[in-house]
Every structure is written in structure tokens, then in C-alpha cells.
Design brief:
With 304 residues, this protein is mainly α. Helices cover 81% and strands 0% of the residues. The protein has 16 helices and no strands. Helix 4 packs across helix 16, helix 5 crosses helix 10 and helix 5 runs parallel beside helix 11. The protein is globular, with a radius of gyration of 27 Å.
């Protein structure tokens, strides 16, 4: 059939015929309805049994013996000390990782240099090494029998079983998050804007604050949120270097473990509910920032 005949036949069809055939065309290119609903049901069942139910149980057990018991559990001295130490470790490690992440992403995305792949591998190292192993490494370096143990003892400095060791372990397990969020975005953006600003006479700091930072601010905030969530919830590495000294070197996860092992279930779930609340807040912030990051990436793709 010629093109003209095809066009004439298509114009001569009733207006509703194309509409009636559309569902049949769509149906041949998508999964059957029962497949979609089965997959949705499996996903919802998985989330219900492995996420929603355990989360609900944490809050039910936390308030099982009443609000007074709950308040007493989170305000007793050891619990307050654990909360304070958790916040201190996060407050120190997150800014350090922010500076490192921005610097590492800038180097990797904007420059070509020898050893670039090695730097990328080192950034991913905490993802492949067990947190317990990383804590043990710090014990072997800064412990009493470690490489610097004698020097630290002579100068009355304490790293292991003290706050510095907890901070070091937290920094190690969290430093990939900011860099890994920034590197793909900065590579996609390229160097054209920075080069244009340099040609116009802008200094290095002016280029960073007025050109680079506005383009990466949402991805940077996203990485900081993930880094902070991991810092407050870290258990393995901190457990090795803390010494489990109540009221001194226990973070919130370690304090929860001790309470649970002592059969203080209401108190352990009360402190666990605080971590759960922090996790929920983190998820909300993560979702909001994630939408901003997606919008930013779409804008970059459109410009490209």
C-alpha cells in the first residue's frame, strides 16, 4: 500500500477507533496487571515485615512501661553521657569529612594527575573493609602495645579507650559519603564554568564560592546527611576502640547493647527510639535533598 493510501485510510477511520485500540497497544508493551500487583505486594510485604514492624516494635517497647520510665531511661547519667558522646563524635567527624570530601571531589573531577585511580580506591576502602577491622587497625597503631603506644604513654596522651579514638574510628567509616556524592556531579558539570571565571580574573576562592559551590550545594548537603546518619549509628569500629566504659566512652549504640544485655529492655528500647527518631528525620531530609539533587542533575543534563 502506498503512503498516500495509508494516509487516506487513517483519515477515514472513525475518531474513536484509535482510542479503542490504544489500550491494546499499551498492553502489549507492558507487564500484565497481575504481575505488577504481585511485585508491588512482594515489595510492600518485605518493607512491612523487615522495616515497618521492627520500627513500630521499638516505639511500642520503649513506651510499654509508661512515659515516666521512658523519660527516666533517656535522662539517667549514663544515657546522657552516651548521647553527648555520640553528638560530639558526629560534630567532629562530619565537618572533617565535609572538607575532605569537597577537596577530594575537586581534585578528581577537575584535574588529571598520576595516582587518581589510587585515590578513588582509597576513598572506597571503608566500604570494603569491615568496621571491626578498621577499629582494630587503630588499636594496633595507637594502643598501649601499638606503634605509637609508648610515645603516647610517655606524653600522657590517650587515644584508644578515649574520645579521640572514637572520633578517629568514626571519621574512617564515614569519609567516603561526601566525596562519593560530589564526584559524579562535578564530573558531569565539567570545568567550563570555572575556566570562564578564571579568564575573567576571578581568584581561586571566588571561583569556589561563587561558581562551584552553588552548583554542588544540594549534593553536598545530601552527602553530609548520610555521613551524619552513619556517624551516629556506627557500632563496630567504635566498639573496638571505646573500651565500653560506662558514662565515659559509650556511644548510644554501645549503651543500647549494654542495657539489653543487662535485661533492661525498656531502657534499651527507649534509647533505641531516639536513634530511630534521628533515622526518620534523616530519611525526611534525605528525600527533600534528593529531589533537589535530581532537579540539579536534570538542569546539568539539559545544559549539556
Amino acid at each position: 500500500m502506498s503512503a498516500e493510501a495509508t494516509a487516506v485510510s487513517s483519515l477515514s477511520r472513525p475518531a474513536g477507533e484509535g482510542v479503542r485500540r490504544a489500550p491494546r497497544d499499551i498492553q502489549t508493551t507492558t507487564e500484565p496487571t497481575w504481575v505488577r500487583w504481585t511485585l508491588i505486594g512482594v515489595a510492600l510485604s518485605f518493607l512491612t515485615f523487615f522495616l515497618f514492624v521492627p520500627l513500630a516494635i521499638v516505639f511500642v517497647e520503649a513506651f510499654k512501661k509508661g512515659v515516666e520510665v521512658y523519660v527516666a531511661a533517656i535522662t539517667e547519667p549514663d544515657a546522657l553521657s552516651a548521647i553527648k558522646l555520640t553528638l560530639i563524635a558526629a560534630a567532629i567527624s562530619v565537618p572533617m569529612n565535609l572538607v575532605f570530601g569537597v577537596a577530594a571531589a575537586w581534585c578528581i573531577a577537575k584535574f588529571e594527575f598520576r595516582g587518581k585511580n589510587v585515590l578513588l580506591t582509597l576513598i572506597d576502602l571503608p566500604f570494603s573493609v569491615s568496621p571491626v577491622i578498621s577499629g582494630l587497625i587503630y588499636v594496633l597503631i595507637f594502643g598501649l602495645q601499638g606503634w605509637f603506644g609508648e610515645w603516647l604513654r610517655d606524653h600522657d596522651l590517650k587515644v584508644i579507650f578515649a574520645v579521640p579514638g572514637i572520633v578517629l574510628a568514626t571519621v574512617f567509616v564515614t569519609f567516603p559519603f561526601v566525596a562519593r556524592e560530589l564526584i559524579p556531579l562535578m564530573q558531569a558539570q565539567g570545568t567550563e564554568q570555572e575556566e570562564a571565571a578564571c579568564v575573567l580574573g576571578a581568584s581561586g576562592w571566588q571561583i569556589f564560592w561563587r561558581v562551584t559551590m552553588p552548583n554542588i550545594k544540594w549534593a553536598l548537603l545530601y552527602g553530609v546527611i548520610l555521613c551524619n546518619a552513619r556517624a551516629m549509628g556506627e557500632f563496630g569500629a567504635v566498639s573496638v576502640v571505646s573500651g565500653h566504659i560506662r558514662g565515659q566512652t559509650n556511644t548510644m549504640p554501645l549503651h543500647i547493647e549494654i542495657l539489653y544485655n543487662e535485661y533492661q529492655f525498656a531502657a534499651s528500647f527507649a534509647v533505641a527510639s531516639l536513634l530511630a527518631l534521628l533515622a526518620l528525620v534523616t530519611l525526611v531530609l534525605k528525600y527533600v535533598v534528593e529531589q533537589r539533587v535530581k532537579a540539579q542533575k536534570r538542569a546539568v543534563d539539559e545544559r549539556a
